Amino acid sequence: MSDAVSVSDSVSGAHVPTTRKQIVVGVGGGIAAYKSCALIRSFTEAGHHVRVVPTESALQFVGKATFEALSGNPVQTGVFADVPQVPHVRLGQEADLVVIAPATADLMARAASGRADDLLTGTLLTARCPVLFAPAMHTEMWEHPATVANVATLRSYGAIVLEPASGRLTGKDTGAGRLPEPEEIAGLAALLLERRDALPRDLEGKRVVVSAGGTREPLDPVRFLGNRSSGKQGYAIARLAAQRGADVVLVSGYTAGISEPAAVTTVHVRTAQEMQAVIDREAAQCDAVVMAAAVADFRPTTLVGSKIKKGDGEPDSIELTKNPDILAGIVQARRDGAVAPETVIVGFAAETGDEDGDVLTYARAKLARKGCDLLVVNAVGDGKAFEVDHNDGWLLSADGSEVALEHGSKSLLASRVLDAVSGSLK
Ligand code: C5P
Prior knowledge:
By secondary structure, this protein is an alpha/beta fold. It contains 13 helices and 21 strands. About 45% of the residues are buried. The chain binds cytidine-5'-monophosphate.
């Protein structure tokens, strides 16, 4: 049930081809139900056909009219409306994706036990497409053995149950159980439409350190040496690694204002030296390090304490000092025994070709020079890789294999990189 449409890329503004899909958005009866409105909107804006199926209690939080207006389709909760159309069978059968947001403890319990006492649970039994649950509840409910067992059951049936975010819950409580941000759920849903097997739980029990974004090297309190990294690729890797079950530390430089991924410990740093200190500490006890950050190669030698004024005393040139190569440092630490020998180390390379060699030639040389296990190579220039939502490239491995990474979302590329990391883990 899909046909081609063209939608606007939210970042670049360019029209990118996509495919219209049938998405069922199930809404459980929790306070986070209001956030499903943003999710529904992002699906319709991406050109998809959306049917909203709330539970009866979800309508205590958001009115039916809101869901109908946002989706442009009728909304019902029970199986006895529109009976000749047999909606509980048709909706599930025709869907390309079912997303439940928020998935409450009660809704997951009913789904895990195969109940079909309303339109949403009936739809879940007939759907054969990917089903994504985005849980939201209080921490105690999320951690209760009954919920833990229901989540495990749903996963054993092939459903994807996202890790919730931590943070402020209803009232004064904080802890695990917050609904991941709608943009994050939408991104993961889009990935499942690109690749339905993108979210296996293959990183459970693994600790993954990811760097992302760009560093800024200050010259004075106002000016810095920086770069165009948006952080999107590294954040996509961290987000996906967490949803594949890993314990993730994201060491983030400056980004284009991306929100922190759910279920990830994010440490913010400013300079290359700060990033190196955190990465060195975290790499000492982890299973994989993915260096997606754009680290400034140089920093101003002198940090001036007050703004350098134009005119009198203004320097003619600025002296720079080379920054440490963090990636090469981890590889060396692994040789020296400070990092475990089985730790998988992944580097990134943004390359352009020239008259002396193409992108792959330079990338092969970089892999050898850095000594990492995997190198993700992006061709840059002509609006590629930086600041946009799409990416492609190659994945080079120290064992000599070279795999083309198909053009697609940065989440799709992240999923391919994590497949390789997962395959290399001991
Ligand atoms: O040498 P180049 O900067 O192209 O290498 C890119 C790779 O090296 C990326 O993985 C980047 O995160 C890492 N890097 C680093 N420390 C630097 C510069 C780059 O870890 N100072």
